[in-house]
Amino acid sequence: MMKHSKFLGAAALLLIGIGIGAASGYIEGKANSTSLVNSINQSLSPIEEGGTSYTFVRPLIAYRTPEAVLLGDYVSLKNSVQSIIDSATSSGTASRVSFYFRDLDAARWIGINQNDTYYPASLLKVPAMIAFYKEAEDNGLSVLSQTVVYDPSVVPKDPFTSPSGLVGEREYSIQKLIDSMIVDSDNGATYTLLNHINPDLLHAVYVALGIQDPGDDSTNYMISSRTYGLFFRILYNATYLSPAYSEKALKLLSKATFVDGLVAGVPEGTVVAHKYGDHVLSSGGTVTGVELSDCGIVYYPAHPYLLCVMTAAANTSTASSIIANISRATYSAVAEKYATTSPAL
Length: 345
Fold this sequence. Notes:
Blueprint: H1 2-27, H2 33-43, E1 45-48, E2 60-64, H3 75-91, E3 94-103, E4 108-112, E5 117-118, H4 125-139, H5 142-145, E6 147-149, E7 171-173, H6 174-183, H7 187-194, H8 199-209, E8 223-224, H9 225-237, H10 243-253, E9 272-283, E10 286-298, E11 305-313, H11 316-338
Antiparallel strand pairs: 1-2, 3-4, 3-11, 5-8, 6-7, 9-10, 10-11
Helix pairs in contact: 3-11, 4-8, 6-7, 9-10
């Protein structure tokens, strides 16, 4: 952890050194170099693991860094995405859209409405997976090989809940249930797992990251794209789970069967480790719209990036199209930036 912390600190200092020169043209006439440095310094801060009681160490989860446009970077991408959002909202196909992008190796990010909150729905299956893998990491692989009998009655009676692909009264291992929960977003597997985990273990994941815990009732829980992205950042940097379990988690997320959002906006064959969530908006039993989110890591050759898009739109098809368009614009911007330096994946 100490080696990783030093790397992040050095990266932050490098960010400042490079950024001041790169941003000089962008901020000319708006701020002098002193105010830029002050602004950057105020944006740099560590996110340390909460819920620990160590005496000699302070585990580092991630680092908060200044928005890239402050440094004159990814400005055109932000403008392109803003145009997509403006078009969707002005036409009435979407009422709200949130966008958060992070160049994972360069520690540069940009966002549009990145602090607006949405219903996460199935996005919360990722911290559930992390909690089980943390338990397995601490107590051994036998945790994942334990079997549970699936009882269909554990799934709430909700007309908007997709049916489970599991077979009632059949035994499944914890790992098999995790596979179904992440790859197929299976609700039967999810509720079965939640009924067989110590809630303190799941709570610990949220506490460690400083994120509000939805608790037993997630129906009114909301989260922003920027905050949710932290779950993927700790997996990519292996700062909460071990590298082996972080790798295991992201590999599983790369097998997700949902392909109408982020995946639809990148070239075929591009690896995307992601999770989607959809929440039906209704009033008096009548469907009024949907909130669809898709968040994850796009493994652009040698330069992977985090992308999280949350939408409130008329229907799932429209929301998926908006997410795909933003994903396409983001991939193009990253490709343009690294075209001359990226080897084959």
